[in-house]
Amino acid sequence: MNAMSEGGAARDPVERLRRGETSAVETMRFYLRRIEARENEVRAFAYLAPEAAIAAAEKADAAQASGGPLHGLPVAVKDIIDTADMPTEFGGEIFAGRRPRRDATIVSRLRSAGAIVVGKAVTSQYALFVPGPTRNPRDLARTPGGSSSGSAAAVAAGFVPVALGTQTNGSIIRPASYCGVVGFKPSLGLLPRTGVLRHAPLVDHPGVFARTVADAAIVIDAIGGEDAEDALSRPLPGSLLAAANAEGPPPKLGFALGPFEDRADPATRAAFAVFIAGLPVKAEEVALGPEFAKAEGTMSDLMCAGVAESLGPDIDRAKDRVPERVLRIVAEGRALSALRLMQAWTRRDALRVDATRLIAPYDAVLTFASSGPAPVASEGTGDPIFATLWSLIGAPAMSLPLMRAANGLPIGVQAVGAPGRDLDLVRATAWLMRVGAR
Amino acid sequence: MNAMSEGGAARDPVERLRRGETSAVETMRFYLRRIEARENEVRAFAYLAPEAAIAAAEKADAAQASGGPLHGLPVAVKDIIDTADMPTEFGGEIFAGRRPRRDATIVSRLRSAGAIVVGKAVTSQYALFVPGPTRNPRDLARTPGGSSSGSAAAVAAGFVPVALGTQTNGSIIRPASYCGVVGFKPSLGLLPRTGVLRHAPLVDHPGVFARTVADAAIVIDAIGGEDAEDALSRPLPGSLLAAANAEGPPPKLGFALGPFEDRADPATRAAFAVFIAGLPVKAEEVALGPEFAKAEGTMSDLMCAGVAESLGPDIDRAKDRVPERVLRIVAEGRALSALRLMQAWTRRDALRVDATRLIAPYDAVLTFASSGPAPVASEGTGDPIFATLWSLIGAPAMSLPLMRAANGLPIGVQAVGAPGRDLDLVRATAWLMRVGAR
Fold first, then answer.
1. Of B104, B268, B335, B351, which is the most buried if we count CB atoms within 10 A?
2. β-strands B397-404, B182-185: how paired?
3. Distance, CA of A379 to CA of B3 (rounded, Å)
């Protein structure tokens, strides 16, 4: 982990661990103390295994010489990602006690690289729209966003330096924005989905929450790349960490307001304009016309059909214990024709071509990550719309904690790249974090 | 083209062209004479442009120094693959006179590499099951197979050394088997589909017909690799030509009879057993159990849904001019639910994992390419079943002209590899052609 340069603090426990100035056990105890202090109010974890984490850290210390690139790193894993040694319950009552037989590919790669899974992070129910108990560590009256609620909150609360999450529509970008952390969803296929609850194979993306771009990058370097069991998985394009640490000229930046601009609140739109104007390099405006509004309905068709297939049979067995909103998604999926699903797929491919053509001239195109700061918890997990198009087309997207609302709450800036151009996006976002943190 | 080593003949016109012993114009005239002599009975072409081909050859000769790896190579292109300078009519009356605005990606790459498109090869109507006029050059009473009928026949008749075709179910492997040529469908995504009539994005594969493995390889090296407009396209894994020409130990071979063995005729099953027993290395039996029979219905659902979406609207406008069998496929697709389509996709992914696990220990697994030699033309284009599983899972597959029926007609041996392992398959098939041609 030579990832802390942006964050600065040489006393950062992860940086000290990397330098061998501290042990995996000491590091783990540091984070467990933080969890102990605030977990009762944040409620980031669906399952927590402190003793096992300490035992794993002891083992890591004993085998330090053979430690991988993530040696001793404490990680939280969203509860829709399978772990063989912990329950994986999808945030849903009907899966209470579910114990996968094996780790998801990204979890087994995490462990092979030396990381230690501290616990399972709360997800919205079935990674859909009904929130779990997690609150936003920046303001406990507010939602952390969803569906990767616990993953974002755990990093924001300093419970773990890194957490795995997933995004089908807006489940990484939005919580990262609300919680004031980096949230990175690489290009479709870079992180394999084997052992992750399926919504819709064309749009399911694992991703990483971290405090810095480099921390996210080093984790993806360790867990990304092809997996024979995920037909849409792809090889890594090179070292994302090297891209994060690269020196060089400023990136070529664009910015886009897009067809959903009206769904961002006025103060956030004003803050975004100030942010763009204040950049040390000029960002060119990218005109994302009204035709891209089709992304929303297209995403909905793909998700509803996928969820109906993936979760439908289990939900049928226990309808009375499943929230109405989830039942409605399954019912909608079941009402769709194959023709309509094929049309959604074709429209998705066309939007991918058109959007890629517009953003490809830039290393990163900046846009809204959320409609504003975190809403109060009673309003739900917030609007995923600003992530929708980029999830739909499989583009790499990252939320960077670079804006702040009048009430002091964080608001993310979303940086997106052309599909497959993750290295350029990482280079650009690491640069943005450096200049944004001045 | 240093591709002729297997075929031997140093007087081979393509080999002479490559060595600079002859010009592109002389080469083109050689092939055009062959076309002139037999096209009236073979009917491989839906459109033929001899004058334009000669003009392109003259231009190639004038610019020889800058000629690409396919300098002057005459190629036939299946009539569902767009060409900006020739009609592309999908073998269907309702598309008569259709003129694409631009070349398909694989056609523009062909031309950039120096190849010359001689004409458009006949396809079954809409690349489905209703045959066009093409006959099998090995026996004019018989079908060349379909849907890439003209492409296979053109290479078999010596009209062109190479032709582009496509396979969604069995449209390359079967005609290659019937016509006694090499037919190669690389892994899904290696050849992009931009500008190719869409059936179903998960299973549409372009491919190449040639006389040798190396000829097919050099063409794929030139036209393969990622395309921003095809979301499922992938980079080439390396040089397929180098793999075809590689020396080295014999490949690790398996053979599989599979759940559809009964649909191969007894003589072909006997010939296949003799072929396997006669190999200079032992091929191990791979048990493809009855569960793989699900491939057929799964492929049908994916194809019907895709065709309904892709061709449905055009077909609706001219129902009276569309064959009943095509209307039925569209109607079946429209009757499917999104749920059923998602289930087909999930089953496809599971079959891919299971089949890959079985074949991954081998460089190539040998199996039937067709149920026998080409049927008489009145029986249709033959049974695609032996290609179905490998198309469904996106595995590389090649038909090699290594068997012969009692009546002297060719029968292919199909060699398949694990998805993405095209280099191993090419190395193995080039070796098989060398030992099979002893």
1. B104
2. antiparallel
3. 67
What are the structural domain ranges in chain B? 13-252
Burial status of residue B292 (CB atoms within 10 A of its CB: 0-12, 13-18, 19 or more): buried
Identify the CA nearest to B372 among candidates B217, B254, B265.
Answer: B265
Burial A98-130 (b: 16+ CB within 10 A, else e): eebeebbbbbbbbbebbbbbbbbbbbbbbbbbb
Query: pLDDT digit string (tens) for A19-38?
Result: 889 999 999 999 999 999 99
Which of A306, A333, A352 minimises the CB distance to B231?
A352
Catalytic site residue from A124, A148, A149, A171: A171
Whether omega for the bond prior to residue B147 falls within 30 degrees of 0, making it cis, is yes
**A367 bridge partner residues:** A414
Query: Hey, are the CB atoms on B341 and A340 less than 8 Å from each other?
Result: no
The pTM of the full predicted model, rounded to 2 decimals, is 0.95
Can you point out the beta strands (E) in B124-181?
Answer: 162-167
Pick the CATH number of A13-258+360-436 from 3.20.20.100, 3.90.1300.10, 3.30.1160.10, 3.30.365.10: 3.90.1300.10
Domain spanning B13-252, CATH class: alpha beta
A135, A43 in Cβ contact below 8 A? yes
**Residue A147 preceded by cis peptide, ω within 30:** yes
The Cα A309–Cα A330 span in angstroms is 8
pLDDT 10s digits, B279-299: 999 999 999 999 999 999 999
- Which chain A residues touch B418 with a CB distance below 8 Å? 228
Annotated catalytic sites of B, by residue? 78, 147, 171
CA distance B331 to B243: 44
SS3 (DSSP) at B180: coil
Chain B nearest-CA distance from A349, in A, is: 7
Taking only Cα atoms into account, the Rg of chain B, rounded to an integer number of angstroms, comes to 20
Q: Which residues of A touch B336 (CB under 8 A)?
A: 337-339
Specify whether the CB–CB gap between B120 and B131 falls below 8 A. Answer: no
For chain A, give the number of residues.
438
The verdict on a CB contact (< 8 Å) between A337 and B336 is yes
Q: How far is the C-alpha of B157 from the C-alpha of B177, rounded, in Å?
A: 14
ipTM of the complex: 0.94
Using CB atoms, which residue from B232, B305, B356 is nearest to A342? B305
Contact residues on chain A for B361, CB-CB shorter than 8 A: none
A337 inside 8 A of chain B by CB? yes
Residue A78: active-site member: yes
Residues A122 and A86: beta-carbon distance below 8 Å? no
How many of the other CB atoms lie within 10 Å of CB of B283? 19
Task: To the nearest 10°, report the CA torsion of A165, A169, A170, A172.
Answer: 10
Residue range A106-120, pLDDT digits in tens: 999 999 999 999 999
